[in-house]
């Protein structure tokens, strides 16, 4: 018997990953590069391929298990003689208890939802259906809080009074997926770890709008986000610590300007693909890079390298309609996040020929939320002033 190890990829950049689900089962034949298992983080879902052809002999990390870089996921028998008759895990090989020991509780159980619940083993799923138990109401003692067969047996033994199931709050309830849980954990950690302060400026987009329209006539389509990314990269010269991070013994300044752009995925949450070396790219190149990243993000085709290593983040929340927001710094390796509100025409006062006049301009509120351990108000306002200056004085095309 010749065994090959299947390992968690090393390229995780510290991002926490879990096993989302196995695409092959013990005893299945696999070809080299066949997808074996899906790993999921708060940013991307990644398939791990088979490193060799053979039989999947052993699975070491079950669904919902944490997958550290380099951890052993499974083993493949490259001679193809093992594993077909491999014993299942203790949980799956136990038979479900007979329905006689406990009468049905009469509670409202969504049996269709239980059948689709991938976190339950077949034995647990069968037991819950036989005894009208809602697994979401049971306390799981398995890895990651999973409900085991022993948990079900214990509830059945305690009698119907304890086994009463409850109906969902509503038919529209949305169970937490891994991305939502991880986003929640990151939010709590970010607020508790870094003292957040937000500064607010207004920005006139007239010059950018004129340049954007002129470029469109020339056949180059650019989003407003491309201009925002480019202006943010140039503004770093006014306050380099904005492109840094807090360390216990120093403020570390990133040698590159790598700007993450929050990209909404509808009900699935959001990801933050990164435009690497944004300061060295032309506006046209920034636009092309953004188009590629956002398209692949919405199609679920981002690689880990696409979301790793950002030194600054932009949340263009105005595209979804909000005028003003103070986004949270989600990444521990960053000191600031720029928020850009909805672009709308407003009446503003401008000085023309020595006179104050009211004019209509495309305006947006811009905020910079900073880690106050890294920078103070002076640097924050210097950065925002330079950003607005660049945007409002964009050269003609």
Automatic annotation (TrEMBL):
PROSITE patterns assigned: BIOTINYL_LIPOYL, LIPOYL, PSBD
- Keyword NADP listed: no
Q: Name one GO molecular function term.
A: acetyltransferase activity
Looking at the record, the residues that make up the Lipoyl-binding domain are: 3-77
UniProt keyword annotations, A-Z:
Acyltransferase, Lipoyl, Transferase
Identify the InterPro entries for this entry.
2-oxoA_DH_lipoyl-BS, 2-oxoacid_DH_actylTfrase, 2-oxoacid_DH_E2_comp, Biotin_lipoyl, CAT-like_dom_sf, E3-bd_dom_sf, PSBD, Single_hybrid_motif
Which cofactors are reported in the record for this sequence? (R)-lipoate
The segment annotated Disordered runs over 82-106
GO CC, any one term: cytoplasm
Residues forming the Peripheral subunit-binding (PSBD) domain are 119-156
The Enzyme Commission number assigned here is: 2.3.1.-
How does this chain assemble?
Forms a 24-polypeptide structural core with octahedral symmetry.
Q: Which family does it belong to?
A: Belongs to the 2-oxoacid dehydrogenase family.
Give the protein name, as stated in the record: Dihydrolipoamide acetyltransferase component of pyruvate dehydrogenase complex
């Amino acid at each position: 018997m010749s065994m090959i190890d299947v390992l968690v990829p090393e390229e995780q950049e510290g991002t926490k990953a879990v096993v989302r689900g196995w695409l092959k089962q013990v005893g299945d034949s696999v070809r080299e590069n066949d997808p074996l298992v899906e790993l999921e983080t708060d940013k991307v879902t990644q398939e791990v391929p088979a490193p060799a052809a053979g039989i999947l002999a052993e699975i070491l990390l079950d669904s919902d298990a944490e997958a550290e870089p380099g951890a052993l996921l499974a083993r493949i028998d490259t001679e193809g003689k093992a594993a077909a008759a491999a014993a299942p895990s203790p949980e799956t090989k136990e038979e479900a208890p007979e329905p006689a020991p406990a009468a049905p509780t009469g509670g409202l159980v969504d049996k269709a939802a239980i059948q689709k619940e991938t976190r339950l083993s077949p034995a647990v799923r069968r037991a819950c259906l036989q005894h009208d138990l809602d697994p979401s109401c049971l306390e799981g003692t398995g890895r990651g809080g999973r409900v085991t067969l022993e948990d079900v047996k214990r509830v059945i033994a305690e009698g119907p009074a304890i086994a009463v199931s409850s109906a969902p709050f509503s038919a529209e309830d949305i169970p937490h997926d891994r991305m939502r849980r991880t986003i929640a954990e990151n939010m709590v950690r970010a607020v508790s770890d870094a003292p957040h302060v937000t500064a607010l400026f207004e920005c006139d987009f007239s010059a950018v709008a004129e340049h954007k329209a002129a470029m469109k006539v020339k056949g180059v389509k650019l989003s407003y986000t491309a201009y925002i990314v480019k202006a943010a990269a140039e503004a770093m010269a006014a306050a380099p610590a904005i492109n840094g991070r807090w360390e216990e013994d120093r403020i570390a300044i990133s040698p590159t300007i790598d700007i993450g752009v929050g990209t909404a995925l509808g009900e699935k949450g959001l990801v933050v693909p990164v435009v690497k070396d944004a300061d060295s790219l032309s506006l046209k190149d920034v636009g092309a890079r953004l188009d590629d990243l956002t398209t692949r993000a919405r199609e679920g085709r981002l690689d880990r390298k696409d979301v790793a290593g950002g030194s600054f983040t932009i949340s263009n929340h105005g595209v979804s309609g909000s005028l003003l927001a103070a986004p949270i710094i989600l990444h521990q390796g960053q000191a600031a996040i720029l928020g850009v509100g909805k672009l709308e025409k407003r009446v503003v006062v401008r000085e023309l020929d020595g006179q104050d006049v009211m004019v209509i301009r495309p305006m947006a509120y811009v905020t910079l939320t900073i880690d106050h351990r890294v920078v103070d108000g002076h640097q924050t306002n210097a950065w925002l002033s330079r950003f607005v200056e660049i945007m409002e004085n964009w050269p003609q095309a």
